Amino acid sequence: MPVIIDFMSVSSYGSETVSSGDVKILKDTDLDLRGKHVLIVEDIIDTGLTLEYVIKYFKEGKGVKSLKTCTLLSKPERRKVDVQVEYIGFEVPDKFVIGYGLDYDQKYRNLPYIAVVIPE
């Protein structure tokens, strides 16, 4: 099966540790996805607001044929909306996590592990 990979940058955090709920597409996909089968791969799903926005954007704005979602980390106790996630790596508690690509104000993405931020 041929696979094509593209990237988007979508944020609802800014420099805060709690989702603002204001979802912004910082970089859109470069591909024409009309009629395509799409797998969204997320780092973390928190409130679900960002994923809900992206799913709606892909289905209505991009006209994808099918859509499934996958995430490394999921925080089910933080959900504000019901989003379907077909593939989940790990469920984590309601803590702000960093490392392994996850950042706090653009820092700590390079950590080779996932850690919890402890407020001072």
From TrEMBL:
Keyword Protein transport: no
Pfam families: Pribosyltran (PF00156)
UniProt similarity note: Belongs to the purine/pyrimidine phosphoribosyltransferase family.
One of the GO BP terms on file: IMP salvage
Localization terms from the record: Cytoplasm
Primary subcellular site in the record, as a coarse category: cytoplasm
GO cellular component, one term: cytosol
Protein name, as recorded: Hypoxanthine phosphoribosyltransferase
Domain Phosphoribosyltransferase: from-to ranges: 3-104
Catalytic activity from the UniProt record: GMP + diphosphate = guanine + 5-phospho-alpha-D-ribose 1-diphosphate; IMP + diphosphate = hypoxanthine + 5-phospho-alpha-D-ribose 1-diphosphate
Known pathway: Purine metabolism; IMP biosynthesis via salvage pathway; IMP from hypoxanthine: step 1/1
CC cofactor: Mg(2+)
CDD domains (UniProt xref): PRTases_typeI
Organism field: Fusobacterium animalis ATCC 51191
Protein keywords: Cytoplasm, Glycosyltransferase, Magnesium, Metal-binding, Nucleotide-binding, Purine salvage, Transferase
EC number: 2.4.2.8
Listed GO MF terms: guanine phosphoribosyltransferase activity; hypoxanthine phosphoribosyltransferase activity; magnesium ion binding; nucleotide binding
Record InterPro entries: HGPRT, Hxn_phspho_trans, PRTase-like, PRTase_dom
